[in-house]
Amino acid sequence: MSGGTVSERRTHAWSDTAIAELLDVVRCPVCAAGMVAEQRCPACGADFAGALGRDLWLASRNAADALRAR
Is the dihedral of CA 48, 49, 52, 58 positive or negative? Predict the structure, then answer.
């Protein structure tokens, strides 16, 4: 049987899910309920404009890259 141990497969699935969440540019990363439009979440009011939004996106991309390298 190939594909690694159950634990390795579970870790891989968890990493894939986390990467998808980190790189999701539609769903709000604060409340996960709103759909971000115009750099703001209509559900919770989170504002992703300017430096804060840029920094959050860069941190999310770096975290996704780190999970891929893991």
Answer: positive
DSSP calls for 44-60: T--B--HHHHHHHHHHH
Q: Are 26 and 40 in contact (CB under 8 A)?
A: no
Q: How many CB atoms lie within 10 A of CB 58?
A: 10
Q: Give 21's contacts (C-beta < 8 A, 6+ positions apart).
A: 29
| Separation of alpha carbons 63 and 60, rounded Å | 5
pTM: 0.75
- Quick one: pLDDT band at residue 1, thresholds 50, 70, 90? very low
How does pLDDT run across 24-63, given as a tens digit for each residue?
Answer: 989 999 999 989 999 999 999 999 999 999 999 999 999 9
